[in-house]
Amino acid sequence: MYRVTFIPGDGVGPDVAYSARKVVEASGVQVEWEEKIAGEPAIEKYNTPLPDDTLESIKRNKVALKGPITTPIGEGYRSVNVLLRQLLNLYACLRPARSIPGIKTSFPNVDLVIVRENTEDVYSGVEFPPHSEEAKKIIALCEGKVREDSAITLKPISFYASEKIVRFAFRYALEHNRKKVTCVTKANIMKFTDGLFLEAARKVAKEFPQIEFEERLVDNMAMQLVQKPHLYDVIVTPNLYGDILSDLCAGLIGGLGVAPGANMGDDAAVFEPVHGSAPKYKGMNKVNPTAAILSAAMMLDYLGEKSASQRIEKAVRAVISEGKWLTYDLGGSASTTDMTEAIIDKIGE
Ligand code: NAD
User: Fold this and answer.
1) Is 243 marked active-site?
2) What confidence tens digit (pLDDT) does each residue in 19-50 have?
3) 123 in active site
């Protein structure tokens, strides 16, 4: 019996998270769910988007299955997702993108994994508004290169965290029989920050001579991914590029509805789809549960329940390739619960 923290999230979060939970139950793995809230329901109840009780539960259980959570854009409280990753030191964000037969896309042969550094870069939350004392001090250091009415966001990248994420990527490649790691940066422009990430990658690559290593600049990488994604295997990259490229890769395989993810650290792991809370579909029982279900399959794999994980993935792929119970984003008219039930039936067959 595993004890797992279950966070439904907000927006479409509860629709997809409860679907994933039902599928795990149908797989036969015994899980005791500790249900906790975060995001909008937590603000209503406790006046904070991330209650201590929720954080403590993840620390205790070390594994969580989570639905997406809304972050106000351009104002309001900071992202609960980013906060969770920082507070639990979930330094590795793992986002596989694998083509699924039956989904209409120009790219039937994608099978790559994005390993995104999850704690640093411009997501560190160190920002200063225009005309603040801190912004003025930093601008003064910039010797006329920065306008006085600028806001400032810092982009810290450490050798320690860069080395750690690149080593994670190489180990992942070894353990999952992957052949190549591509390090993606913009080190031609950001010579100190991205340059440091690349330096760490080059150093770690030498420890893994059996895995091919290559380097790409992020702008070129974006173009390469939409022209020849089959050439890529494991991609390791700082936080912001990883965020953007993982949505791009989700697009290659059929959209955010089918893209799973995991946030992993040395002491805990939180599994969640790549997609956000898609507020316009809230409460409509309409969105695709696949991304959340495949995230739950990744969780079972992490827990050592490899056969249950594979059965879930196989059931998802079978339902999609049969094409009868598909949600709107895959060209069908099934509801979230219809598609979930079809996947559960398939697991039972
Ligand atoms: P989003 O991923 O929520 O949705 C973008 C679009 O993708 C949706 O409008 C919809 O058309 C499609 N989509 C998303 N999930 C889908 C699904 N399961 N099935 C079918 N189609 C789906 O991105 P957004 O609109 O930019 O962000 C909305 C909110 O989510 C923001 O507050 C953002 O901060 C938050 N967010 C949270 C997480 C997280 O909790 N990990 C991740 C990303 C964004």
Assistant:
1) yes
2) 999 999 999 999 999 999 999 999 999 999 99
3) yes
Q: Give the C-alpha separation, 155 to 177, whole Å.
A: 33
- Nearest Cα to Cα of residue 90 among 70, 128, 63: 63
Q: Which residue has the tokens 């920082």?
A: 86
Minimum-distance ligand 1 atom for the alpha carbon of 328? 20
- The token duo for 206 is 């030498």
DSSP string, 151-168: -EE-----HHHHHHHHHH
Whether residue 74 is predicted with pLDDT greater than 90 in this model: the reply is no
Q: How far apart are CA 246 and CA 259, in angstroms?
A: 9
Cα 261 to ligand 1 centroid, rounded to whole Å? 13
Pocket test for ligand 1, best of 43, 275, 285, 329 (most atoms within 8 A of CB): 275
User: Nearest to residue 93, comparing CAs of 257, 265, 221?
Assistant: 265
Residue 146 near residue 274, CB atoms below 8 Å: no
pTM of the model: 0.94
Two tokens, residue 31 = 């899980």
Alpha-carbon distances of 227 from 110, 233, 304, rounded to whole Å = 11, 15, 36
**pLDDT tens digits for 220-271?**
999 999 999 999 999 999 999 999 999 999 999 999 999 999 999 999 999 9
The domains of the chain, with CATH numbers, are: 1-91+257-349 (3.40.718.10), 106-119+157-253 (3.40.50), 121-154 (no CATH)
Type of residue found at 55: L
Q: Tell me the sheet residues that pair with 112.
A: 97
Q: What SS3 state is found at 111?
A: strand
